[in-house]
Structures are given as structure tokens and as C-alpha cells.
Design a protein that fits this description.
The structure is a single chain. This protein has a domain at 148-321: Aldolase class I (TIM Barrel, Alpha-Beta Barrel). The protein is 39% helix and 20% strand. The protein is built from 17 helices and 21 strands. The protein has a seven-stranded antiparallel sheet with strand order 13-12-1-5-3-19-20. Strand 9 (257-263), helix 12 and strand 10 form a beta-alpha-beta unit. Helix 9 crosses helix 10 (214-224). The chain starts with 15 loop residues before the first helix and ends with a helix. Bound molecules: adenosine-5'-triphosphate, 1-O-pyrophosphono-5-O-phosphono-alpha-D-ribofuranose and nicotinic acid. Nicotinic acid binds next to loops. This is Nicotinate phosphoribosyltransferase. It is an enzyme of class 6 (ligase). Its EC number is 6.3.4.21.
């Protein structure tokens, strides 16, 4: 069976159950009823104090391309699971709803909507899987990247993960997410072409192995390149790699730009200190020491504590696979739905686990800052039409522990969910990637350090407005009353 179709589309990039539900909605005359779904995650990834939102660009292109092709319809027909009339309807399907989303690079927190679909039920259901797929991964990687960035400080940070990524798409979009989260460049050339991310790299052990010795390999590389970083650990870093790199750099003089050497094994702290001494003694004080080898934020922090003399960090596997937490766990839940009389009814998913009870109603998230110092005070989740920015003072309380509360006076409230699609039309200008990266950094700077530390950060407040809280309690009670009167 071929996996290539000339008219392949992304419309079938969905779980079969979405299409099954769509057929039910369509046949029962519910397809066009208005529904609001919200996407959120329950726990902060990596135990981090914040997450960095990424994935919107791909969401936009997914929605814009969302059309069933002839071979999609033929395939669905072949499965025997769908009615012919429904499939004919799908042939002309278009997403006609609205999407409000966090913009890329902005900070997001657990238990608040980070993207919202307000659309005819049939379309809102179809897009669930792809939206989760895109945002779960990209937000996870952008967050991991931000954690790594937080320990390297201003040192250049290179993304080397493509070869270890979970397949090609993950490498490309993971690289972009890493750039948003704070990486400076990537080894992935296609990501450079597609997104304008600076590309950067050194050379592999294969080059040295083909010449069978460091000197000939470095010399050959130097004769064929201006910018040179030599990988010095193929045979013996201190006895052969570094001395030969220095020898070639001296011989080539101004003909090359000797940028430094890369270490990829051994005790990076010890070796880097010796390498630094050797480069300095030889007069190459500006040459940089690059390090790679299964690095992540913990190892880098540890190497910094050991005063390793590393100037440039290359990080692959542990970033691109989100090694210590491979899933963000974001979910997509119905929060409001139009009844048969055209009335919007807020809906809830009850759980015995209190943190899993969804918050009903179409909502907005407001980032509250103190105007006196510009610092972020917390997020305030309201029902969609509330206007907290018009209030004189804002009473914020923890929805699980209501005795934890504060009243703010001199505050600003910024709406996090921005209109991206309105009635199927794109209304948002996607920013340049560098703008996104800068935006992210600016907003991270506004966060107190207590939320940014790597280990056991303070829990950032995500509070519900009184109206939103009361609405949730009312609906929990309605559901309880309904269940209690059932008799079987
Ligand atoms: N000084 C150090 N402190 C803490 N961790 C270190 C230090 N030096 C290296 N590491 C890390 O320890 C791990 C060592 O990896 P590993 O056991 O594979 O050794 P290696 O030297 O890379 O061997 P190989 O030659 O097989 O690549 C890597 O993740 C590396 O980043
Ligand atoms: O360790 P990571 O964080 O995943 O970074 C990427 C790794 O990929 C390369 O190794 P590989 O052994 O694949 O090839 P090489 O011959 O260039 O070392 C490189 O040398 C890094 O060690
Ligand atoms: O350019 C490099 O040094 C590089 C690229 C990919 C993976 N590891 C290293």
C-alpha cells in the first residue's frame, strides 16, 4: 500500500473518534450548533514555574489548509464506517469558526485556557487532535529550551537535536520552538531556510576518522572553510586534538577564522579548563570552547558550578525529545454549548480528583501586572465578557484555597487570548520569529525570579474571578442535583 497520494491532505490527521462523533452531530442536526472548547494543561512541565507557548504558526497553517481531498473521501468510504451523505458533506467542509489563542512566546500556566475554539460543533470537534498534537509538542520544547537558556545565561546556545528527534517534523518544529524559548541557532539547515533561524555547526568525528589523524583533518577543513571550529576529542583531546588544532590555526593564520574547538566526551569540566589554558598559552584567547554530549539544564548548571571553561553549548537529544518529561498533557474540553433554543449552556467535566474538574464557560485569561514595578502578579481567569481592566481594584483569590487572596489597586490587565480566526477568516498577522523570541524574553523578564528558578519554583497564581468561580460552583451543584435524582 502506498503512503503517497498526489492529493494527500492534513484533514485526516485526526483521531477516528472525532469523525465518528462528527457523523453523529451531522445526522442528528447538531453539526452547526455553536460550541466552545478550551485547550489547557493541568501540570507545569518539568516542574517549571512557567511554560512558553509555541505552535500557533502551525495551527494557523493547519486551519487554512483544512480541506478533505478526493483520496481522503475515497479512503473514508473504503473503511465502511461512514455514510455516503456525510462523506459528501465532508467534501465541501471548511472551518468557519473562531479561534482565540495565546500568541507564541507568551508565558502560559496550568489550568488556564491557552487556546479556545468557538465554532460550529462539527468543526470544533474535528480540529481537536491536530491542535493538541501541535501545541502539546511545541509548547513542551519551547519550555524545555527556556529552562536550558536560563542556566546558560548569555552564552551562545546551539540546537543539535535533529538526528535524535522523534522523526522529521519534530526536528523542524522542535527547532523553531527551541529558538522561541531562547536558543540562538540550529544545526538543521532546513529550519534555517524555512524560518530564518541562524544555522551553525562544527564537524563530526567522521571527518577526523577519514583522515585517520587530527592534523590532516583539521588542515583539510581549514583549507576548505573560512570559519573553523575543530572537534578535538576523536583520539585524545589534550594530547592530540587541541595541539593539532593550535598547530593548524597557527599555520593558516589569517587565512582562516579560528573560532575554537569542540569537546564531545570525557570530563567536560576538567578538560575544558585544560583546553582553555592551552588555547590561551598559544595566543588564541578569543578562540571559544564548545561543548556537547547529552547536555541539559542540570548538567550545564553542574558544569558551571565546577567552573568549566565552556563558551558555547550544543544541546540535542535532551532538548528535542523533552527527555525528562515527554508529554505536556494538554487537553481540549467543551466548556459551553448551544442548546436547541439557541441558548449557550456552560458545561463541565466532573472528576473525583478536584484538580481535574474543568472550569465551565467561555473564558478569558488576564495577565495582571503591578503598574508600579511592571512585574507580573498572577493570572486572572474571567468569563469572556468581564472587563477587569475597568475595575478600581481587583480582588484575586486562589480557587482551591480561597483564604489565599489579595487586592490590587494600581494594576494593568492584559488579555492573553487574542483573536486569530474570526468566523473562519484569519484576523491575526503572524509576527516574525525574531519578534516572537524577543516578546518571550520581555515577558519572562517581567516574571519574579521566584517563579523562574529551576528547582521548586513558587507556584504562580492562576485565580478565577468571583463570577467565574460562582458559575463553576453553580454548575457543579446542578450536575450533582441531576445525578442525585437519577433512579435506576
Ligand atoms: N564534569 C562533569 N560533570 C558532570 N557531568 C559531566 C561532566 N563531564 C561530562 N559530563 C556528562 O556526563 C555524561 C558522560 O557521558 P558518557 O558516560 O557517555 O561519557 P563520554 O565521555 O561521553 O563517553 P563516550 O566517549 O562514550 O562518548 C554526559 O552526559 C556528559 O555531558
Ligand atoms: O549529545 P546531544 O545533546 O544529543 O548533541 C548532539 C550529539 O550529536 C553528535 O554526536 P554523534 O555521535 O551523533 O555524531 P558525531 O560523530 O558528530 O559525534 C554530537 O557530537 C553530539 O554529541
Ligand atoms: O555541528 C555540530 O557540531 C553538530 C551538529 C549536529 C549534531 N551534533 C553536532
Amino acid at each position: 500500500m502506498s503512503y503517497r497520494f498526489p492529493d494527500d491532505s492534513i484533514a485526516l490527521h485526526t483521531d477516528a473518534y472525532e469523525l465518528s462523533m462528527m457523523q453523529t452531530y451531522w445526522q442528528k442536526g447538531m453539526a452547526q450548533r455553536r460550541s466552545v472548547f478550551e485547550l489547557y494543561f493541568r501540570n507545569m512541565p518539568f516542574g517549571n514555574g512557567y511554560a512558553v507557548f509555541a505552535g500557533l504558526q502551525r495551527v494557523v497553517s493547519y486551519i487554512q489548509q483544512l480541506k478533505f481531498s478526493d483520496s481522503d473521501i475515497d479512503y473514508l468510504k473504503q473503511t465502511g464506517q461512514f455514510d455516503a451523505d456525510f462523506l459528501e458533506y465532508l467534501r465541501d467542509f471548511k472551518f468557519t469558526g473562531s479561534i482565540n489563542s495565546t500568541v507564541e512566546g507568551d508565558l502560559v500556566f496550568n489550568n488556564e485556557p491557552i487556546l479556545q475554539v468557538d465554532a460550529p460543533l462539527i468543526g470544533a470537534q474535528l480540529v481537536e487532535t491536530a491542535l493538541l498534537n501541535i501545541i502539546n509538542y511545541q509548547t513542551l520544547i519551547a519550555t524545555k529550551a527556556a529552562r536550558i537558556k536560563s542556566v546558560v545565561g548569555d552564552d551562545p546556545l546551539l540546537e543539535f537535536g535533529t538526528r535524535r528527534a522523534q522523526e522529521m517534523d519534530a526536528a523542524i518544529w522542535g527547532t523553531r520552538a527551541a529558538y522561541i524559548g531562547g536558543f540562538d541557532a540550529t544545526s538543521n539547515v532546513r529550519a534555517g531556510k524555512l524560518f530564518g533561524i541562524p544555522i551553525s555547526g562544527t564537524h563530526a568525528h567522521a571527518l577526523v576518522q577519514t583522515y585517520m589523524n587530527d592534523y590532516d583533518a583539521f588542515k583539510a577543513y581549514a583549507e576548505t572553510h573560512k570559519d573553523c571550529v575543530f572537534l578535538v576529542d576523536t583520539f585524545d583531546t589534550l594530547k592530540s586534538g587541541v595541539p593539532n588544532a593550535i598547530r593548524v590555526a597557527k599555520e593558516m593564520g589569517d587565512k582562516i577564522n579560528f573560532q575554537g574547538v569542540r569537546i564531545d566526551s570525557g570530563d567536560i569540566a576538567y578538560i575544558s579548563k585544560r583546553v582553555r589554558e592551552m588555547l590561551d598559552e598559544a595566543g588564541f584567547k578569543d578562540a571559544k570552547v564548545y561543548a556537547s554530549n547529552d547536555l541539559d539544564e542540570k548538567t550545564i548548571m553542574n558544569l558551571k558550578m565546577q567552573k568549566a571553561k565552556i563558551d558555547v553549548w550544543g544541546v540535542g537529544t535532551k532538548l528535542i525529545t523533552a527527555f525528562d518529561q515527554p508529554a505536556l498533557g494538554a487537553v481540549y474540553k467543551l466548556v459551553s454549548f448551544e442548546d436547541e433554543h439557541g441558548q449557550m449552556i456552560d458545561s463541565i467535566k466532573i472528576s473525583s480528583n478536584v484538580t481535574k474538574v474543568s472550569t465551565p464557560g467561555k473564558k478569558q485569561v488576564w495577565r495582571i501586572t503591578d503598574q508600579s514595578d511592571g512585574k507580573t502578579e498572577g493570572d486572572y481567569v474571567t468569563l469572556w465578557d468581564e472587563k477587569p481592566q475597568d475595575k478600581e481594584s481587583l480582588y484575586m483569590f486562589n480557587p482551591d484555597y480561597t483564604y489565599i487572596n489579595k487586592t490590587l489597586h494600581n494594576f494593568a490587565a492584559r488579555p492573553i487570548l487574542q483573536p486569530i480566526f474570526t468566523n473562519g477568516k484569519l484576523v491575526y498577522d503572524l509576527p516574525e520569529l525574531d519578534e516572537i523570541k524577543l516578546f518571550s524574553k520581555r515577558h519572562l523578564d517581567m516574571l519574579w525570579d521566584e517563579y523562574k528558578r529551576d528547582l521548586n519554583p513558587q507556584v504562580y497564581p492562576v485565580d478565577l474571578s468571583q463570577e467565574c468561580f460562582d458559575n463553576k460552583m453553580k454548575i457543579i451543584k446542578q450536575v450533582r442535583d441531576y445525578v442525585n435524582q437519577l433512579k435506576f
